[in-house]
Specification:
Elements lengths: L18 E3 L8 H7 L2 H49 L3 H25 L8 H8 L2 E3 L5 H17 L6 H25 L4 H4 L4 H20 L2 H12 L5 H23 L26 H34 L3 H25 L5 H11 L2 H4 L2 E6 L4 E6 L1
Antiparallel strand pairs: 1-2, 3-4
Helix pairs in contact: 2-3, 2-5, 2-6, 2-8, 2-10, 3-5, 3-12, 5-6, 6-8, 8-9, 8-10, 9-10
Length: about 400
Amino acid sequence: MGNVESWPVLGKIRNAGPIESKEYHLPNNPKFNARTVTQRKARKKAFVRWMMCFLIGSLISLIYRGVSYVNEVVGDAHYEVIEDLIEDGNLAGAFFANTAIMLTLVLTAVSLVLWEPASGGSGIPEVIGFLNGVSAERLMDLTTFIAKMLGVMCAVSSGLFVGPEGPTIHIGALLGAFLLRSLVVVCKRFNIFRSLQRLKNDKDERDFVANGAAGGIAAAFHAPIGGVIFSLEEAISFFNAKLIARSYLTCAVAYYVLFFLETHSHEFDTNLFTEFQLDLSCRISYYAEDLFWFAILGALGGFLGGVFNYLVCTITKLRIKYINPLGWRRILEAVVITILTSMFVVFVPYNYPCTSASSLVKHVADNFPTFNQTGDEICVNRKTSHVSISVL
């Protein structure tokens, strides 16, 4: 896969670099073992690995919180302008202002991807490929890290229907690889800790990338166990008990650091940190015949999921064939999607106002009296605007 220049004229763009394979099995011979394996060196390496996991978890939380803060500030300023124009009755002005702001941010993100193609997309398939022995040349470069972070800020704050969760996994993986390389460079530069200089190998890089990806899941979804499970079950094929333990440390640190950053509280209360509050007293009665409709609902969900996956695969293949190779087509695609999104977010809410959760639940209660027959009370959580049904 060679590089293609002509990016200045927005013709054929360069790709993420040649594909290479990784060797995750260290040499096993007496000479190599004599140089690298001693009890003291092993303890030193183990200590450094654990400290690096702690550092990765802390930094990925700081990065995610920083990206989220930028998205909140830019997004709030963006929608405040649009809201003022709509309240003044200037719907056309709101549309054009919203489109202009969105295009500025979206085209900035597209330019970053054209500058560094390895930063495009969520990065999850590329990380999975890396953890299983296949890597593009610039997949774990510093330029990819920078383009990824700035691109996520622009894309999410623009108002497109995208989120930072997927790219956060790639950012965590990049962070793990970057910290390992930095440690090796510092040790070689000052000629210290020679045993740590040998950490720069495919196996150790794989381990730190896996830890970083797991930490990205923990930070993005507030799910430390989910991060470990994703890294070991979905992403990586080469793992051991030590890697599981280090991944969990990374996820736990990422979770708790982000908790204190977002809640500003020294008291650990999960209700402050979760989108959906859990009421253990919640109980909803149903009848045996309702199981049939539950089955129908499940089958419908599976069918729609299959249709969705088919459409995603089909559209992705078409984009790879007709859009991705040419820079101007990528820009045109982004412009069209941005304009359609702007029309949707401005005109649809204006013509079809949102229904409050309380009135929706009241409508359900009035039309389905079985709620009242079972003695349940329907209420709305004012803090999070989430509906809950609790027992009287």
